[in-house]
Every structure is written in structure tokens, then in C-alpha cells.
């Protein structure tokens, strides 16, 4: 039933913006040795393309989507991304974590834990100021926004 709600929310005005780009990176969960691909949706400020000329670094908001750990995608919070871009001018990166029941808790949190150091380690590539990172999330994502730093 919740998936139907997620589907219908895409029709509300204003339409959510699609991500500027998506990137995938392999991750390995240390406890299990399991390998997975972690996707992130990037929403970037308008002047982002000029960053290499100016060697500009942007603050980053790392978003963890809601959905009760069982549904949702990194593209669900496009409206929130647009608001952050407009108000803060930060890069907005939404993490698509693996979902239960196929991947039971705490898999989602482990994915969040892997995403943050990966972004920091690749900050030059992404134009991120790794000293200016913030976490956001709604519902399950809010839970992860609190638990991910604790796991780090």
C-alpha cells in the first residue's frame, strides 16, 4: 500500500526535479564480506560546471530517503533537493540504500556508513568541501541521519 502512496506523490505539484546525475560505486560490508553496488543521486547548483575553473568546493547535504527501510529510492526527495539548492547552494546527494526484507536491518545503516567516507575520499572529484557535510532524511532516513554518524 505504501508503494502506491510513493507513486502518487510524484503527481503533486510542483513536480520533483530529476537528479543532475547518478553515480554508482561498489561497497563491501566488512561484517559479512558481501559486495554490493551503492547508487547516489546528485543534485547540483546551477554554477556547478564552473567549479573546475575556479577550484570551487561546495558544502554537501547527504540525504537518506524515507520508506520504512522497505521502499523508496534516492530520487524520492527531489523537491527537498530543490529547496536545499535554492536556499543553501550545496550539492545534494541522496543515497539509495538496500531495502528490507531482502536486506534486513542494519544493512541500510551500513550503506549510509559507507556513503559518507566515500564522498569525503572523492571530494575533489565531486567538488565537495568535506569539512562541510550535513545529513538529512525523512522517516527512516531521519533515523539513519542519526544512527549513521554513531556507527562511524
From TrEMBL:
Record-linked InterPro entries: AB_hydrolase_3, AB_hydrolase_fold, Carboxylest/Gibb_receptor
Looking up Gene3D superfamilies in the UniProt record yields: alpha/beta hydrolase (3.40.50.1820)
| Top-rank taxon | Eukaryota
What are the Alpha/beta hydrolase fold-3 domain coordinates in residue numbering? 61-150
One Pfam assignment: Abhydrolase_3
What SUPFAM superfamilies would the database entry show?
A: alpha/beta-Hydrolases
PANTHER family linked: ARYLACETAMIDE DEACETYLASE, PUTATIVE (AFU_ORTHOLOGUE AFUA_1G02580)-RELATED
Q: What is this protein called?
A: Alpha/beta hydrolase fold-3 domain-containing protein
Amino acid at each position: 500500500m505504501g508503494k502506491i502512496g510513493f507513486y502518487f506523490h510524484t503527481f503533486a505539484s510542483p513536480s520533483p526535479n530529476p537528479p543532475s546525475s547518478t553515480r554508482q560505486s561498489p561497497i563491501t560490508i566488512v561484517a559479512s564480506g558481501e559486495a554490493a553496488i551503492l547508487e547516489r543521486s546528485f543534485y547540483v547548483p546551477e554554477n556547478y560546471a564552473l567549479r573546475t575553473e575556479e577550484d570551487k568546493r561546495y558544502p554537501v547535504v547527504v540525504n537518506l530517503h524515507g520508506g520504512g527501510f522497505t521502499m523508496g529510492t534516492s530520487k524520492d526527495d527531489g523537491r527537498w533537493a530543490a529547496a536545499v539548492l535554492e536556499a543553501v547552494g550545496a550539492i545534494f546527494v541522496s543515497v539509495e540504500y538496500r531495502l528490507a526484507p531482502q536486506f534486513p536491518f542494519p544493512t541500510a545503516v551500513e550503506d549510509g556508513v559507507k556513503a559518507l567516507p566515500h564522498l569525503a575520499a572523492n571530494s575533489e572529484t565531486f567538488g565537495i568541501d568535506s569539512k562541510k557535510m550535513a545529513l538529512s532524511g525523512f522517516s527512516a532516513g531521519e533515523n539513519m541521519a542519526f544512527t549513521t554518524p554513531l556507527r562511524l
